Amino acid sequence: MADTVEALASAPCYRVQSRTAPVETATMLFNSYEYLIYFLPLSLAVYFVLGRRATWAVGWLVAASLFFYGWWNPKYLPLILASIGFNFFVGRALHRKPRHAKPLLAFGVGANLALLGVFKYAYFAVRNTADLTGLPLALPHIVLPLGISFFTFTQIAYLVDVHRGKAKEPSLLNYALFVSFFPHLLAGPILHHREMMPQFASATNKRPQAFHLAAGLFLLAIGLVKKVCIADPLGPVAAAGFDHPEAISALAAWLAVLAYTLQIYFDFSGYTDMALGAARMFNIQMPVNFNSPYHATNIREFWQRWHMTL
Questions:
Q1: CA angle (63, 65, 66) in 5-degree steps
Q2: Which of 120, 197, 199 is nearest to 153 (CA)?
C-alpha cells in the first residue's frame, strides 16, 4: 500500500502537491493543447507513414517519447537514457551469465532503488534531520523527475522477468521503446516486456486500423471529460481547505476532504483512460490499471483496484 501512495503522490496531474520537495510543473499533460493538437496527431501520422520500415517506425516512436518527456525539463533526458542503458545491459548480463544471475539481479534492483531513493527521499531525509537535530543542514535542491517511479518499476519488473526466463530483449532500440513509450511514461501503467513487445513487433500494428483509432479516441475523450470537467474544477476547492486548515470551519474542512477525494479519483481515472486511449490509437493495448476502486467493499480490494499494475 505504501508504494501505491507514493505512486499517487508522484503523478503529475494532482493539484494538491506534497510539500516534501520542490516540484516543477511545465509538463505536456494529456489534456494540454500542445499534446492534443500537435504532439499526438503528428506522432501518429509519422509512425504509420514509417510503418513499413519497422526500425524507422520504432526509432520515431522512441524519439517522440523522449521529446514528450524532455518537454518538462530537457536536463533530465540523460537520466532516463542512462537508466535505460544501464538496465538493458544488466538484463543482457543476466541472460548471458546465469551462474551470476542472483548477484546481478540484486545489483540491478539495488541500483534502481538507490536512484529512486536519492531523488524521492534525499530532500525529505535532510529536512527532517535538520528539524529534529536543529543542525543548520543545507537542503538539497532536487527536483523530482516526472515518472521516475514508473520507468524505474517497469525496469525492475523487466530484470525480474529476465531472471525468471520470461523476457529477453536483444535490441537496445526496442528496449528503449518498451520503457519510454509515452502513454505510460509519466504515471503508468507499469508494463511487462512479454505483454508489450509482441505488440510493438507486429507488422499489422504499424498500419492504421479504424477500430483501434475509434476506440482510442473514445477512451481519450472520456478521460479528458473526467480530467477537465470534473477533477480540475474540484482542485481549487480542495486546495483552499488544505492550504489554510486553521482558518476553515468543520463543514468547509469536510468539503475540502470530499473535493480532494473526488479530485484524485477522477484525475487518475481520467489519466488512465487517456493513456490507454493514446496507446490504443497506436494499436497497442496496455493493461487495465484502474477498476472503480470506490466500489470496493474493503481496504484490500480498494488497493487492488487502484493502480492495479503497481
A1: 65
A2: 120
Residue 183: which of 110, 279, 294, 250 has the closest Cα?
Answer: 279
- Report the C-alpha gap between 289 and 280 in whole angstroms: 14
Who wins on pLDDT, 172 or 140? Answer: 172
Residues 286/187, Cβ–Cβ less than 8 Å = no
Tell me if 250 sits within 8 A of 2, measured CB to CB. Answer: no
Residues 6+ positions from 103 with CB-CB distance below 8 Å = none
Contact 155, 179 (CB under 8 A): yes
pTM of the model: 0.81
Distance CA 290, CA 265 (A): 10
40-71: pLDDT as tens digits = 999 999 999 998 888 899 999 999 999 999 98
Residues in the chain: 310
Amino acid in the structure at residue 262: L
> How many degrees, rounded to 5, is the angle at CA 63 between CA 268 and CA 276?
25
Query: Alpha carbon of 240 to those of 149, 196, 213, 215, 223: distances in Å?
Result: 28, 42, 40, 37, 25
For 182-197, what is the mean pLDDT?
A: 85
DSSP 97: -
Within 10 angstroms of residue 84's Cβ, the number of other Cβ atoms is 21
**Phi, psi (rounded to 5 degrees) for 306:** -105, 120
Please give the Cα distance from 67 to 166 (Å, whole number): 30
96 neighbors 140 (Cβ within 8 angstroms): no
